[in-house]
Each structure stands twice: as structure tokens, then as C-alpha cells.
Amino acid sequence: MRLDKFLAESSVGNRKVVREYIKSGLVKVNGEILLEPAWEINEKCDVVEYLDKQIIHKGKVYYMFHKPAGYITAKKDLINKTIFDLFHKDEMNGVFHVGRLDKDTEGLLLLTNDGEFEHHLMCPNKHVEKTYFFGALGNLSEENKRKLEQGVYINKGEILTKPAKIEVDKQGVYGELKEEIPIDILSNITSNYYNQPIVAGYLTISEGRKHQVKRMLKAVGCYVIYLKRVSIGNLQLDNSLEKGKYRELTKLEVEKLMKKQVI
């Protein structure tokens, strides 16, 4: 195994950071300083030290995280709270988020130290589907649902979005549906919207453009007031996982995510 890979998988830092540690002479293998990140080591028997502290190979890690609204998807920020404020710092060295969710968006977010895993899920050519539950002001006619399914223009100069899947769960006037729609959506609605048309449902996309779900729905006359990602590929958000909490993915879940998606 490469030395930089060993350190990255041991939560010392990401590959870019640990390469600098190595080149700066901060890493020893069997008592000797090595300056080459690509140096091959035996992770089972070689003794690796960083700042004179022995490093235990942790291996690849995969986390399912239930992101709450109000946190940005980033390692650090000078103004906003980040998702990593909700993790134990020592566990997150070398771990990064797979894709991102907007500050006001909730739901399923994956974290890992495995670059191949991230590439498989985020590469546009892989067509991995992501499903979002949304609540929006407005309504969706059959014509507008067809537009979403076939692709819409979400900004001047951008190409048509890829075909999507849309499933309407509830639709009508807010005053009539307020007892039937999720409380998380209600918290974003004031009494001024009592007679406002509202629609709730699921939108599945296979791209990752900025604010894509919000912009797609806006293109057909709907203003999103609540958004939650509920699945990535064949992985569903664990309903028992509270907001702000995380758990490791099972071996089977990782294997299923890494399988080729059928479109």
C-alpha cells in the first residue's frame, strides 16, 4: 500500500494533506523518515509514525449522515455552522463528504475517506439517481410533470436537464391539507399562505447541478419551501437515524452502492 494512502485511510488527513506531511519529514516508517508519498509499505507489519506517534491503519470508512437544515456542507466556514461541527473531530480526519446538500436542505449525506467510492457516486457518467422529498408553493399539472420527466431548461445558456421521475404525494390548498402534510413543511409556511396552492412529492434526478431540484421546480412554477434527500442509488435514509446523527454503512450497503446503476 502507498504510504499516503495508508495515512489517509488512518484518518491522519486527506491524500493532499498527508503528502505534505510526508514531504516535510513528519512521517517515519520503521524508525526512518521517508519523504516519498508513493513509497510502498506493508500495512500489516510496518510501523508508521506521524509526529512520533504510531498510526494504526483504520481502513476505508463509510458513514450515513442525516443532515439537518442550517448547516453547510463543508469542512470549515468562518460564518456558518458546518456538518463537521456535528462529528467527533478525531474520527473525521481524512474523511470528506460525497457531494453536498444546500444549507436549508435536510436528509441523506454520505461521508468517506474512499476516493473511488466518491467518484462512483458523483461522476456524471455513472448516472446515480438521487431522490428528494419536496414541499412547494404552487401546483403541478400533468403537462408540467411531463416537462420535468422529459427535461427542462433551468437557466439561460444551460442545456436541458436529464429526464427525471416525479411522484406527487399531496396537492391542493394549504388550508385544506395542513393536517396531512409533514410538520417540517408546515414550519416554513405562515398563515398568509392559507389559501395558497401547495404540492408535496418526490423528484428523482441523475445529475448534480447547483440547486437543481429547486431550479427544476421553479421552471414549472413551483417555489420550494422544504427539501429533503431520501435516497442515493439504492440506499434509503435510515428512518431511525435522528437529524444530526450518523452511522457506518454496512458492508452490504457499500457493495450495493458500488454496483452499476441501471437507467
TrEMBL record:
<feature type="domain" description="RNA-binding S4">
    <location>
        <begin position="1"/>
        <end position="60"/>
    </location>
</feature>
<dbReference type="GO" id="GO:0000455">
    <property type="term" value="P:enzyme-directed rRNA pseudouridine synthesis"/>
</dbReference>
<protein>
    <recommendedName>
        <fullName>Pseudouridine synthase</fullName>
        <ecNumber>5.4.99.-</ecNumber>
    </recommendedName>
</protein>
<comment type="similarity">
    <text>Belongs to the pseudouridine synthase RsuA family.</text>
</comment>
<dbReference type="InterPro" id="IPR036986">
    <property type="entry name" value="S4_RNA-bd_sf"/>
</dbReference>
<dbReference type="GO" id="GO:0120159">
    <property type="term" value="F:rRNA pseudouridine synthase activity"/>
</dbReference>
<dbReference type="GO" id="GO:0003723">
    <property type="term" value="F:RNA binding"/>
</dbReference>
<dbReference type="InterPro" id="IPR000748">
    <property type="entry name" value="PsdUridine_synth_RsuA/RluB/E/F"/>
</dbReference>
<keyword id="KW-0694">RNA-binding</keyword>
<dbReference type="InterPro" id="IPR006145">
    <property type="entry name" value="PsdUridine_synth_RsuA/RluA"/>
</dbReference>
<keyword id="KW-0413">Isomerase</keyword>
<dbReference type="Pfam" id="PF01479">
    <property type="entry name" value="S4"/>
</dbReference>
<dbReference type="InterPro" id="IPR020094">
    <property type="entry name" value="TruA/RsuA/RluB/E/F_N"/>
</dbReference>
<dbReference type="InterPro" id="IPR042092">
    <property type="entry name" value="PsdUridine_s_RsuA/RluB/E/F_cat"/>
</dbReference>
<dbReference type="Pfam" id="PF00849">
    <property type="entry name" value="PseudoU_synth_2"/>
</dbReference>
<dbReference type="InterPro" id="IPR020103">
    <property type="entry name" value="PsdUridine_synth_cat_dom_sf"/>
</dbReference>
<dbReference type="InterPro" id="IPR018496">
    <property type="entry name" value="PsdUridine_synth_RsuA/RluB_CS"/>
</dbReference>
<dbReference type="InterPro" id="IPR002942">
    <property type="entry name" value="S4_RNA-bd"/>
</dbReference>
<dbReference type="InterPro" id="IPR050343">
    <property type="entry name" value="RsuA_PseudoU_synthase"/>
</dbReference>
